[in-house]
Specification:
Layout: H1 9-15, H2 25-44, H3 54-64, H4 67-78, E1 84-85, H5 95-113, E2 139-140
Parallel strand pairs: 1-2
């Protein structure tokens, strides 16, 4: 499979001061492969809101930190920007929508790729995107600080 990403996110992750320091080279490669699958899932299901796992979200943020590549990759894959709504789910009334979106994402993932959506290295609960996304996306992730527990 050819990568849907035109920038070397492995190299970017290795030199990023904000990337998880405890990730080994093997884990970075593993999570990068999962992020590529996330993009393919979004491409195969246009208009379907998707919620990333915390680790996939890390790679997504790394991709967005390369704006030209991110823009060009999104245009090629989707014909538009894959928007990232980092604040979605921060209000209690949004949590049921976030949970349904995450569950639907997991269902589609298992159908498309024949494997569980949540990696063994991850917390099995929904992502808690703690980055300041500034309403850049329509995908569901929860704004929280890195040390807060993920939303169930």
């Amino acid at each position: 499979m050819t990568s849907p990403i035109s920038v070397d996110l492995f190299a970017a992750a290795k030199k990023s001061p904000s990337f998880p320091e405890d990730w080994s080279d093997d884990q970075i490669r593993y999570e990068l492969a999962r992020y590529e699958k996330f993009l393919i899932l979004a491409q195969r299901h246009p208009g379907q809101p998707l919620a990333p796992t915390k680790n996939i979200d890390e790679m997504w943020h790394m991709h967005m930190m390369n704006p030209r590549a991110y823009y060009n990759d999104c245009q090629r894959l989707f014909g538009d920007i894959l928007d990232h709504d980092g604040g979605f789910g921060s209000n209690e009334e949004e949590l049921p929508v976030l949970q349904r979106t995450f569950d639907k994402t997991a269902e589609l993932w298992e159908i498309e790729f024949g494997e569980p959506y949540v990696a063994k290295s991850e917390d099995p609960r929904m992502t808690n995107c703690w980055h300041d996304c500034q309403s850049r996306c329509w995908h569901a992730c929860k704004s929280a600080k890195p040390d807060e527990a993920a939303v169930v």
